[in-house]
Amino acid sequence: MAKKVQTRVERSQVKGLLWRKKVDSTLLNQQQTPLPVWILELWKHNGLSVPTTKEKLKEFLVKMDGGLFSSSITSRRKKNNYQYYLSFDNELGEKLKRIFLMSFMRSIEAELSGKKNHQHIEATIPFWEFLDIEYIPSTQAFKLTAHYTIPPQFPNLFAQLSSSAALKAVAMSANDHVELKIHKQGWRSREHYKQEIGAFNVIYTLIDTKEKLVYVGEAKNLKKRLDSGHPEISNWNFYRFNVLPRGMNNRNRLELERMAIRDLASLLPNEKNQDLIEISSFKLVNKKIDIL
């Protein structure tokens, strides 16, 4: 466990009604948190309807670190009552995992242990992180503030892990997700590729934004493939990749690569320019383009 903690003084610039949430697996893995009863009572007092499973769910904006994210109120029936939750979109869910990385790692450890009750893992690895949730009635919006976080022992490694395909694969397997899951990574600048963790069995895309060139490829090992060079697009400056399911072999990967190339060749100028509806000034530089 980490030796240091990142402490924060009590906040004074609180504009809304606030509750402090202990970060747990429900928040990080299910991307939702129970709403306190007093919020529901406040809505009723102000003449706002409280959603049920039969009604259209309410939509809300969530503010965090200057960004705006989508959220909604969902409900779950428990005996004769409903339990209400604030549910976050995937973008905010991923952000929370990065911010509360130690709690996210612990939640994965709990899933891997095979025990449904996660309290045992908190006793074994005892630490807590906290998220402040404010409700601002005037705008009917929520504001999230990370109040108390624990930095990892190895900050550079953990920062890389937080967005890596390797950690996504572990998290998915721990939660019993299906085998046919593609782990999608976003755009990153060229200098980051040597630091990628778990970039195996991938379909990748390279872009040269200066010369407006695009290249699609496949690789068993992304770092080794990029090290070997690409004469068609030697000055590429951004890349992204998708990690294919473990059950897909080299032949499957090649077929998916050719499909992706062919799809882009129908939209971007290329050497063959057959069946093309041009939508961009970028040019596809792949030479192996399947034709109808």
How does this model look, in words?
This protein has 292 residues and is an alpha+beta fold. It folds into two domains: 17-162, At1g16640 B3 domain; 179-284, no CATH class. Mean pLDDT is 82; it is low at 1-5. The N and C termini lie far apart (57 Å). A seven-stranded mixed beta sheet has the order 1-6-7-3-4-5-2. Strands 8, 9, 10, 11, 12 and 13 form a six-stranded mixed beta sheet that branches. A hairpin with a 4-residue loop joins strand 6 and strand 7 (141-148). The chain is built from nine helices and 13 strands. It has helices at 25-29, 37-45, 90-99, 101-113, 119-124, 155-162, 165-174, 222-227, 250-265, and strands at 17-22, 32-34, 59-64, 67-78, 81-88, 130-136, 141-148, 183-184, 188-189, 200-208, 213-221, 238-243, 283-284.
Blueprint (SSEs and pairs):
Layout: E1 17-22, H1 25-29, E2 32-34, H2 37-45, E3 59-64, E4 67-78, E5 81-88, H3 90-99, H4 101-113, H5 119-124, E6 130-136, E7 141-148, H6 155-162, H7 165-174, E8 183-184, E9 188-189, E10 200-208, E11 213-221, H8 222-227, E12 238-243, H9 250-265, E13 283-284
Parallel strand pairs: 3-7, 11-13
Antiparallel strand pairs: 1-6, 2-5, 3-4, 4-5, 6-7, 8-12, 9-12, 10-11, 10-12
